[in-house]
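Hi L.,

As promised, Reactive oxygen species modulator 1:
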Amino acid sequence: MARDSCLARVTAGVAVGGAVGGAVGAVYGTYEAVRFKVPGLMKIRYIGQTTLGSAAIFGLFLGAGSLIHCGKSY
């Protein structure tokens, strides 16, 4: 293949966005759980929700940006 397909670029964008979003969400979720003194095992649930939510949003936006950028040729 001479050029990457659009699907491969969008998939890579979603994967990178999910990884970055997950890392940021884990750090932010841990900070918020400690800051607001979330009790016991609810901390793990809170951190997990923040991590997955952040990963989904970052992945969505980076994938959409890759899709928009995919149509342009430089």
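The chain has a mean pLDDT of 91.

Thanks again for sending the construct details.

K.
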